[in-house]
Design goal:
Blueprint (H helix, E strand, L loop, with lengths): L1 H14 L2 H4 L3 H20 L7 H24 L13 H4 L3 H12 L4 H12 L1 H11 L8 H8 L1 H29 L3 E9 L3 E8 L5 E7 L11 H17 L8 E6 L5 E6 L3 E3 H8 L4 H20 L2 E2 L8 E6 L2 E7 L6 E2 L26 H4 L8 H16 L9 H10 L15 H10 L11 H9 L9 H11 L5
Antiparallel strand pairs: 1-2, 2-3, 3-5, 4-5, 6-8, 7-10, 8-9
Helix pairs in contact: 3-4, 4-6, 4-7, 4-8, 6-7, 6-10, 7-10, 13-15, 13-18, 15-17
């Protein structure tokens, strides 16, 4: 803006029109104000301690200031002595404020909400200026509809178009920044999205190893504000806990950190598979032999965690991925130790959870009774209860309790006795498996299998009429993996 005005004044000086431009204050005061505002904006960017968001906010103020000055420069005296009948849209045209708004939106990417506020204030500059000129008698009064059509609608349209552009440009810029800020990894494409954030397929800049990056958005519930420091501490603890686990059936975590835009992220192995919840919805219930095969691998992951005094607390089909791994099929990976808790400090003063205060941790359809009742002491047997719920879901395609609403579901887990899965499916289920799942679902943790190893051993001892073999798994994956015809 500073350069445009300087060039215009130099041109007028060379053509001899500068004295005319300086004949009245109305002609030169707006230009001087624009020069002062532009110079102030230029000098502000040189303040060393200003953060990029602060500079962007100052830029948005500059946008509004310039948008407020331009109409006075254009329209002061332009309609003097003109009758309202002669004042038409063709005569007036569109103020350069519209071009300025579009130009600024492209030039200065800002958060869409803040960009919208600046655009609305800028867009109203023209109708407010004309209203002032009408009030002081420097422009003719117009019927309301004519005023809206000539001086309001063009700028409402400009605001809408500019806002859409702001959202697109900001989103593209955010993705580019993320691609540059995730340490040594470059984001390729988004493969998942949830309430807390997104999961991206990523590639290491120097290694051939693919990876998945989970981003926890800064605006996710609890991720910002006064609790941010505590959330960051919990996020770091979650990453360290997951990285410390060595079971091949626990997802591997490579790295974690905080990006420049404040989003938490962690880098984990990229799995070639699908979570059990999606598989059950897509393919229906699993045969008993396959369920036993899956459960024993899950027990391997949980066994290590429990030996280290850790309780997952959110075992559910969506957190168990069945994948192809190193030429093996139906290979289980346990995800998201986000609610992990040390069994011995669950109720202690130093206990840290990954959830907000006074909120039950876990998923209602898979919640152990002791967690549902808010007991202060839990151990690995809470995960075995949830694993029993997973087994029920895989065998029957339904939940243990088909209650409506999370409160009713939690109450059912706390008080209602479950039915054996064999009553809800036509697929043959060995009586020993029915009984073992009911044992996992006991309300009293003391009546469940004592450990994940004990559960795995009990599963291995069940005689299945049709065991699940590697050949069956390979054939199933050829026929049923996503994208197969």
């Amino acid at each position: 803006m500073f350069g445009i005005l300087a060039w215009a004044w130099i041109g007028n000086f060379l053509e001899g029109d500068l004295p005319h431009d300086l004949a009245s204050p109305q002609q030169w005061i707006p230009d001087v104000l624009l020069l002062v505002a532009s110079l102030a904006m230029f000098l502000t960017t040189w303040i060393p301690r200003l953060s990029p968001p602060a500079i962007t906010n100052i830029g948005l103020v500059y946008e509004v200031v310039v948008s407020s000055i331009i109409p006075f420069s254009q329209y002061w005296g332009a309609f003097r002595g003109l009758s309202g009948e002669r004042l038409s849209g063709d005569l007036v045209g569109i103020s350069s404020v519209a071009l300025w708004m579009l130009f600024f939106t492209v030039l200065v990417p800002a958060k869409p909400a803040r960009a919208l506020i600046a655009l609305v204030l800028s867009g109203f500059a023209v109708p407010i200026t004309i209203a002032i000129l009408i009030a002081v008698g420097d422009a003719p009064a117009l019927p309301t509809m004519d005023f809206v059509f000539i001086f309001v609608m063009p700028y409402v349209i400009t605001v809408v178009v500019s806002y859409i552009s702001a959202r697109v440009i900001y989103g593209l810029g955010r993705d580019v920044r993320r691609a540059e800020e995730m340490g040594s990894y470059r984001l390729l494409d988004r493969i998942g999205r949830g309430g807390m954030g997104e999961v991206w397929r990523a590639r290491h800049n120097m290694l051939a190893r693919p990876a998945a990056i989970k981003l926890i958005r800064r605006d996710a519930p609890g991720a910002d504000g006064p609790t941010r420091k505590a959330v960051l501490s919990r996020f770091e603890r979650k990453a360290q806990v997951t990285a410390s686990l060595e079971s091949p059936h626990t997802v591997k975590l490579y790295d974690f950190g905080v990006s420049e835009d404040g989003s938490f992220y962690y880098v984990m192995e990229l799995l070639a598979g699908e979570d059990l919840e999606s598989l059950v919805k897509r393919c229906g219930p699993f045969p008993a032999g396959r369920v036993i095969h899956i459960l024993r691998q899950a027990c391997h992951s949980l066994s290590e965690a429990h030996r280290r005094g850790l309780v997952h607390r959110d075992i559910k089909p969506a957190n168990i991925v069945l994948c192809e791994h190193a030429f093996e099929h139906d290979y289980v990976k346990i995800l998201d130790f986000g609610l992990v808790k040390r069994a011995l400090d669950y109720g202690g003063s130093e206990a840290i959870t990954m959830t907000a205060a006074n909120v039950v941790a876990g998923t209602p359809a898979y919640l152990a009774p002791e967690i549902a009742l808010g007991r202060e002491t839990i151990d690995g047997r809470a995960d075995l209860y949830s694993l029993g719920c997973v087994a029920f879901r895989l065998l029957t395609g339904r939940h243990i309790f088909e209650e409506e609403g999370p409160v009713a579901m939690i109450a059912a887990h706390a008080k209602t006795a479950p039915e054996p899965p064999g009553r809800f499916t036509k697929i043959p289920i060995p009586r020993e498996l029915d009984a073992l799942i009911l044992a996992c679902l006991a309300k009293d943790p003391g009546e469940r299998p004592a450990t994940a190893e004990a559960l795995s051993d009990a599963l291995a001892s069940i005689d299945v009429a049709t065991p699940w073999t590697a050949e069956q798994a390979a054939a199933w994956w050829r026929e049923n993996q996503p994208g197969s015809s």
